[in-house]
Amino acid sequence: MSTAKDTLEIVNVSRRAFLSAIPAGALVLAVGFPRLAKSSDEAKYGADSMPHGWVDDPLVFVAIASDGTVTITCHRQEMGQGVRTSLPMVVADELEADWTRVRVTQAQGDEARFGNQDTDGSRSVRHFFEPMRRCGAAARTMLEQAAAAQWSVPLAQVAARNHEVVHAPTGRSLGYGAIAAAASRLAVPARDTLRLKTPAKFRYIGKGHVKIVDGPDLVAGRGMYGIDTRLEGLLYAVVARPAVYGGKVVSCDASAALKVPGVVRVVEIPGTPPPSEFQPLGGVAVIATNTWAAIQGRDALKVQWDDGPNRSYDSAAYKATLEAAARNPGQVVRNQGDVAAALRGAARRVQAEYYIPHMTQAPMEPPAATARIVNGRCEVWAAVQAPQATHDRVSKRLGLSADRVRVNVTLLGGGFGRKSKPDYAVEAALLSQAMDGRPVKVTWTREDDVQHSYYHTVSVEHLEAGLDAAGKPVAWLHRSAAPSIRSIFGPDPKHEQPFELGMGLVNVPFDIPNLRIENPEAAAHTRIGWYRSVSNIPHAFAIQSFVAELAAAAGRDPKDYLLELIGPSRRIDPRKLADSSNYSESPVLYPFDTGRLRRVIETAAKQAAWGRALPAGHGLGIAAHYSFVSYAAAVVEVGVSGKGEIAIPRVDIAFDCGAQVNPERVRSQLEGACVMGLGNALLSEITFKAGRVEQSNFHNYQVARMNVAPREIRLHLIPGDFGMPLGGVGEPGVPPIAPALCNAIFVATGKRIRRLPIADQLAT
Amino acid sequence: MSTTLNVNGKSTTVDVPEDTRLLWTLRDVLGMTGTKFGCGMALCGACTFHLDGVAARACVTPIAATVGKKITTIEAIADDPVGRRVQTAWLELGVPQCGYCQSGQIMAATALLKQNPRPTDADIDAAMNGNICRCGTYTRIRAAIKSAAAEGDA
């Protein structure tokens, strides 16, 4: 392996010289603006719509040492989705690099340099596949040019092949290490001159044989997460935070805490009144020479709190509030035909209400961050999904200019949306400041994580349908009442926002003439935040359960009935479904393709041998959902014992995300999504009493353990075309799981689950 | 307040109160961060280590309880042939996602296989149910344990 010292950047000419060599238009492109000149008011989609867009400059992402070691920078955060393997693999493939000679380094938070780094929304590979291909192709071209120049032969006679450039007529070759320095003196080729590989020539992309780059470290305990940061003179902190969102410290007696051996200092962190965005909740920090001492010190604090305006938040009472809201007309978010008239004229009416509770992400690594301030410069080490947001918040809160803050990203021990909110990194920065710049690590205990999170929203989904004499729906009314994530950023809108409505609520693709979707008011009383798959969880649970309820009412097979509701294959402009969001993707490139939705349903059903004979007490359930511009369907087999104990022998999942860049990690993501979806359905619930979270740790906030995992998860990936836009992978596997499970339970037992989690609802 | 521990075959003296949990002693005092914090209440298994060869939870184990006993952590599990087989199976089957819980999973799986070289599905579920993986790698963990067990037969 090369050391940093002997690593030559592939282009080590100055940035200015590099930029001056390319046309003015491309100069703008290289710092991440849209690839086509667009007027400023034109809608932007995909990576172009994200802050700082994308960068495809090999200068930024690739370095080749004289020994041939290729170092590729990954600018997206690793949290288990495999991005530190998948994106560098794309660069390496186009670069014709030998994967065994590639190493991966992690970018610091700097979007102006790397392009958007906000790792959520199932976007990393979807948005950076093409830029990373161009990045690799540009570097490959420069190596070819350098070799051709050295041999004084036409460029057309040379080709890069597996870490060397070969001159075909003579068979001569030069290794990448030997020509890296010469290549580094060349200008980066213009984007429109790049030759990308044809998919038939891919070595790694789409193959699935590349092992994750961090594997050997992870199995040996060498993976470095945010919580593992070690620095000279490091102090360790835990924070007592207000139990109620918006609460604050009235007084604090720290005398006993300061007597705990190892406790160094007690520091108050000012809170931010709601909406507190990504700012700390405030409270009292205990800083010590080790985490255990800090925890003991915190236990000894005597803090008096003012609970503030959310002191009466009670989730049981709030369920009733949401139900009342959902039983009355609300803001209309999509309307076609005349639902009221069609319901009146229907041969039969069916109505159901579903409840999906708050949940918390509970990544196995709780939030943790370290900060140090030296000579007016703050350096942060943190497990964060959004390093640029972290950088911005730390810089603003400390009053330091942007260039005086550096955010280093560690591995994330899970994220699931929790680590998109860097409040804990701001805490670390404030505590380092309070300790005159000494390095301080803030660790959230599991209790902190469970009780002070940004929670998955809570919702009541009210559905009504009118069926004709043949059992086919002629009217569909859906009211969804759920607090919005937007409430943490500004005045509470009390309504789901376009990005939430577009998560499977308004864009229901059913071929029903009279359809109305309403969004009654729902106020937030805690921090609401992204949780893997977000609003798709309640929307898909309600809709896919209700379809099965209608099928049962009509005496029809639920799979056939679902396909019939979707209707014929067609590509629908999302805007025609009142979806202005569509995961910020172009409605032209990413229409809602009901043919693809039908195909995953048909594939899952076929592969699961839908209709197969099952033991007594077993049932099959099906559900499908479009999210993150991908299509997923699941068939769950459940067995319910006489005592109501649930076992899941097998799940079949069909998935269409377009072409799969790293099919092996697509599979692992779907397996994980299946298990998390089952945990959501069976176990996980956060409740509030007097504004406080009632759960505290994994004994009362339960998540899926091995006994919940299906004995077998069978995955059926729909082949895709690398010429077509890619879909998301990390999240879309979750939404169909809970409704498929509950539909299976209905078949097995005749009991319809309308409230999650299932918990002991089947106990007899 | 100094206490002498035997960690991975080495005698080490630490100067913290003897009720300090082994987890934080390893991580913050000895700088061995392979053993992970997940819950602090022996509920999740992220901190699983071996105490005289038996799986235990470092987050609830005061260092006083380890005196005179052998502490083995993930950092040294490759020295054990069973541990090595488990690590190899983990890599072959691509078990880790975020990887955070996997130190504990590997320690629990190694302890299981040392005690029961050919575990049934039920044995595996029972032994591993205390180890939470939020990424949901359970089906691969089961397969990897079986693979490591089969390698042991070879």
CATH topology of the largest domain in chain A: Aldehyde Oxidoreductase, domain 4
Helix content estimate of chain A = 25-40%
In total, the number of strands of chain B is 5
Count of discrete alpha- or pi-helical segments spanning 4 or more residues of chain A: 21
Low-pLDDT ranges of chain A: 1-38
CATH superfamily of the largest domain in chain A: Aldehyde oxidase/xanthine dehydrogenase, molybdopterin binding domain
Q: Structural class per helix/strand content of chain B? A: alpha+beta
Largest beta sheet of chain A: what is the strand line-up? 10-11-8-18-15-16-17
Order of helices and strands of chain B: EEHEEEHHHH
Q: Summarize the main sheet of chain B.
A: 5 strands, mixed
Low-confidence stretches of chain B: none
Number of domains of chain A: 3
Walkthrough of the structure:
The complex is a heterodimer of chains A (764) and B (154). In chain A, strand 24 (618-627) and strand 25 (630-640) form a beta hairpin. The longest helix of chain A has 28 residues, at 124-151. Chain A has 764 residues and is of the alpha+beta class. Mean pLDDT of chain A is 94; it is low at 1-38. A seven-stranded mixed sheet of chain A has the order 10-11-8-18-15-16-17. Chain A has three domains: 7-218, Aldehyde Oxidoreductase, domain 4 (2-Layer Sandwich); 226-309 and 367-443, 2-Layer Sandwich (Aldehyde Oxidoreductase, domain 4); 315-359 and 454-749, Aldehyde oxidase/xanthine dehydrogenase, molybdopterin binding domain (Aldehyde Oxidoreductase, domain 4). Chain A is built from 21 helices and 29 strands. Chain B has 154 residues and is an alpha+beta fold. Chain B folds into two domains: 2-76, Roll (Ubiquitin-like (UB roll)); 77-153, [2Fe-2S]-binding domain (DNA polymerase, domain 1), CATH 1.10.150.120. Chain B has five helices and five strands; from the N terminus they run ββαβββαααα. Chain B has helices at residues 22-29, 81-92, 102-115, 121-128, 138-153, and strands spanning 2-7, 10-15, 48-51, 54-57, 70-72. Chain B has a five-stranded mixed sheet with strand order 2-1-5-3-4, sandwiched between helices. In chain B, helix 2 crosses helix 3 (102-115) and helix 2 crosses helix 5. Chain B is globular, with a radius of gyration of 15 Å. The model of chain B has no long low-confidence stretch (mean pLDDT 97). Chains A and B meet through helix 8, helix 10 and helix 20 of A and helix 1, helix 2, helix 3, helix 4 and helix 5 of B.
